[in-house]
Amino acid sequence: MSRLDVDRVCSVTNANFDRILSVVVKYLGESRVGGCVCEKCVKSLIADALNVLPTHYYADQTREQAVGSPWVLVENAVAETVEKHQARVCKRLAGIEG
Ligand SMILES: [Zn+2]
């Protein structure tokens, strides 16, 4: 049995990450994201939007078919998450954490 190369095993990719990221960046550029846009809040927004979509990871990064969810679902996931994000209180701005 060969020794497990953890770095290689941990290179699985969320098939929706690039799509969600591009839509969030578009929303930020159009100032469509209300509420706090600090790094931590934007990361939470991205994570929450990813969690709206069906889980889709792949291990082989050369796989052509691993493109993620349809764009309409990605757009809807971001829109839904942005709406919730606007009501979210930034812990950093509220002084709860540094
Ligand atoms: Zn924030």
Description:
This protein is globular. Helices cover 48% and strands 4% of the residues. The protein is mainly alpha-helical and 98 residues long. It has a two-stranded antiparallel sheet with strand order 1-2. The protein is built from 4 helices and 2 strands. The mean pLDDT is 86. The chain has one domain. The structure holds zinc ion. Zinc ion binds next to helix 3.
Structure keywords:
mainly alpha, globular, binds zinc ion, 4 helices, 48% helix, 98 residues, two-stranded antiparallel ribbon
Task: Summarize the structure in short.
The protein has 98 residues and is mainly alpha-helical. It is 48% helix and 4% strand.
Topology readout:
Elements: H1 6-9, E1 13-14, H2 17-29, H3 39-52, E2 57-58, H4 71-86
Helix pairs in contact: 2-3, 2-4, 3-4
The structure holds zinc ion (ZN).
Q: What's the gyration radius in Å? A: 16 Å
The SSE order reads HEHHEH
Q: What would the average pLDDT be, to the nearest integer?
A: 86
- Domain module tally: 1
Task: State the strand order across the main sheet.
Answer: 1-2
Fraction in beta strands: under 5%
Helical proportion, percent range: 40-55%
